[in-house]
Amino acid sequence: MKLPDKKGYFGQFGGKYVPETLSVCLNELTIAYQKYKKDSGFKKKLDFYLREYAGRPTALYFAERLSKHLGLKVYLKREDLLHTGAHKINNALGQALLAKFMGKPRVIAETGAGQHGVAVATVCSLLCLECDIYMGQADIQRQAMNVLRMKVLGARVIPVKSGSKTLKDACNEAFRDWVTNVRNTYYLLGSVVGPHPYPMMVRDFQAVIGREARAQILKKQAKLPDYLLACVGGGSNSLGLFYPFFNDRKVKFIGVEAAGFGLSGLHSATLVKGGVGVFQGSRSYVLQDKFGQIKNAHSIAPGLDYPGVGPEHSYYKASQRAQYLAVGDAQAYQGFKLLSQLEGIIPALESSHAVYYLNQLAKKHKGKTVIVCLSGRGDKDLDIIKHYEAERKI
Amino acid sequence: MRLKEKFNQLKKQGRKAFIAYVPFGFPEPKLTKPICLALAKGGVDIIELGIPFSDPLADGPIIQQATAKALAAGANLDNFFGTLKELSSSLTIPIVIMTYYNPVFKYGLERFLKRLKSHRVCATLIVDLPIEEAGQYLKSARGLGVDTVFFVTPTTDQKRMRKIINRSRGFIYYISVTGITGPKNIAYRSVARQVEFLKKISPLPVCVGFGIHSAEQVRAVNEFSDGAIVGSALVEFIDKNYRKKGFLNTLAAYTSKLCMK
Q1: Which of A121, A381, B72, B218 sits CB 3.0–4.6 Å from A153 for a disulfide?
Q2: Is B254 within the bounds of a domain?
Q3: What distance in Å separates the CA atoms of residue B137 and residue B60, rounded to the nearest whole number?
Q4: Which of A152, A184, A187, A183 is nearest to A173 (CA)?
């Protein structure tokens, strides 16, 4: 059966839990997406931009030194090599083109660390769309360089001062803008979260990662890998990798969440430690207190710092199609160093969570083949690394 | 009192409903009861009590800040139900509960509605539970005799309006602006047209909310609807005045000015 169903459900997860004004926007979007995803003009344009502009296909790189070090066969899916430095551009291009085809002149988006915001500002500049990015005040201070990048690209960055002043609040604010300006505005959501059709649509635009990886690995070693490994915040790079392998039952999926300061303190391990709830438009796992209030999340990786997760991941967890575990800040730092020093690839701190987990995997499963989604490059994180090392006198 | 009786009573008196929205626990949990009593004294016909939520998607800055303040002051479902119990014995006007879905989902939908019913709440509005997701909610609420109020907005088409009406009990909440709560200018003519259409296809009262913050707007909306809902203006007034002497009296006076009583 193809998921999600008509109402946007993956098993018991997903749906469209939004105020009435948004229901109308979402129905319009669902219809437009169903129409254009089959439209040859749309598909051609998207393929063109992905190839000529973003730099697809990305390499599936056999990391020889890392493999030898760990006793595994490790392939890296190099999304870090894409234009703007992360997988986010796959989705930004897809949805911005959709906005263009729908005739919406203005695009809005939320951003946490700024990676999605930069990707959206980039494609809006390319496609001549007006662009407003909502970003939490706390994130604006932490990510000055990305704020500047967005501004250089011609976007307006709107500070969000409500709630925890981070990603989830930026997301709330973008929804509020959309409710108010739906007639001329497209909301370009950055992950496989939110109400239907976003989880499905973002997954479809990110699935190019897994489609390429599957063909590449078959060409390189004539058999499927044993494991797919990726970090999970909202869950778009991991789902992009996993989804095209869904029916390859022998390929095991491992999603790595952020354990932050530790699972008893502040963290972002929504699937590992959260409970089922309804947050930002869908029923999924969420970090919440006993009264159903949403908790603040934490991770050293800004892109994982989110108290919700995509409903399709919740479905993968419930149906045991994927396994989810969590890796803390200090371990992610180790993963970051490991890949930088063994392979000359500085990974994003998000991806570093997945890289670190290879150590654990190697302990039990020597010799197995693993594809790791290297969702982004780590240049953006050097400030965080500098502070992290200074605080610990490393 | 059921909503139906209330609206019948108002009709006989030739009056329109004035519905006051306040978030529970704002500015602190122990003030909710005296605030509600002051609103009733000021002439409010129905109180719409909101359950504060950490991520209020449909609310503007005024109510966002108020709910954040309530949560910081320790508002939770335990003291909410405690206050509701006290109110049920001291208030004679109907209470309607407005909430986002997650606190209800976490508590258990059926259990939540039963608890409300036991405190004589007559209706619920769940902001982020549109008709597509409301199956179980409708079943439980009907079984318990709790009215289900739904929203209609300027972007809702006529086909969808009919679906919403079929699922509505008590009254229909017409949102006067495309957007979030908070003071706005209202396009009366188009709102009137929509409200008149709703009244043509449904016997339910239609009340108008979002953006209404002055006595003039209340009067204008009353021309074509069955009542007005005021939230942000009251919240703002409470925020500015609750530390001052005689606050509850000035709140009652402000309320009666708003609802022209």
Answers
A1: A121
A2: yes
A3: 26
A4: A187
Query: Which is it for the CA torsion A152, A158, A163, A167, positive or negative?
Result: negative
Summarize pLDDT for B218-228 with one digit per residue, the tens. 999 999 999 99
Any catalytic annotation for residue B59?
A: yes
Does the global pTM surpass 0.90?
yes
Nearest Cβ partner for B57 among A15, A175, A288: A175
Three-state secondary structure call for residue B91:
coil
Contact A70, A359 (CB under 8 A): yes
Mean pLDDT of A369-376: 98
Give residues with Cβ within 8 angstroms of A197, minimum separation 6: A8, A26, A29, A30, A33
Q: What's the complex ipTM? A: 0.95
The residues with which A160 forms a beta bridge, in sequence order, are A136
Contacts of B101 in chain A (CB under 8 A): 17, 278
Residue of A nearest to B156 (CA): A24
The answer to whether the beta carbons of residues A373 and A209 sit under 8 Å apart is yes
Tell me which residue of A213, A173, A201, A167 sits closest to A305, measured CA to CA: A167
> What is the percent of chain A with per-residue pLDDT over 70, rounded to a whole number?
100
- B210 in reach of chain A (CB within 8 A): no
- Give residue B261's pLDDT: 65
Q: Does B148 reside within a domain?
A: yes
B99, B155, B168, B172: best to mutate for the A interface, most A CBs within 10 A? B155
Residue-range definition of the domain harbouring residue B215: 12-258
Q: Is B53 on the interface with A (CB under 8 A)?
A: yes
Q: What letter would DSSP give residue B29? A: G
Answer whether residue A1 shows pLDDT above 80.
Answer: no
Provide the b/e sequence for A85-101 (b: ≥16 CB within 10 Å): bbbbbbbbbbbbbbbbb
User: Does B221 map to a domain?
Assistant: yes
Interface probe for A, chosen from B69, B77, B102, B125 (most Cβ of A below 10 Å), is B102
Contacts of B210 in chain A (CB under 8 A): none
The average confidence (pLDDT) of chain B is 95
Question: Which is catalytic among the residues B45, B48, B147, B226?
Answer: B48
Dist CA A261 CA A266 (whole Å): 6
Instruction: Provide DSSP, B144-201.
Output: HT-EE--EE-TT--HHHHHHHHHH--S-EEEE-SSS-SS-----HHHHHHHHHHHHHH
Residue bearing tokens 């947050």? A279
CA distances from A374 to A81, A157, A354, B251 (A): 9, 27, 8, 59
- Angle between helices B232-241 and B61-72 in degrees, nearest 10: 50
Which residue, among A205, A325, A191, A195, has the nearest Cα to A254 in the 3D structure?
Answer: A325
Q: Would you state the torsion angle of the CA atoms of residues A25, A31, A34, A39, taken in this order, to the nearest 10 degrees?
A: -110
Could you tell me the CATH number of the domain that includes residue B59? 3.20.20.70
Number of domains in chain B: 1
pLDDT value of residue B177: 86
At residue A258, what are phi and psi to the nearest 5 degrees? Answer: -95, 120
How far apart are the C-alpha atoms of A147 and B198, rounded to whole Å? 46
What is the predicted pLDDT for the residue at A113? Answer: 82
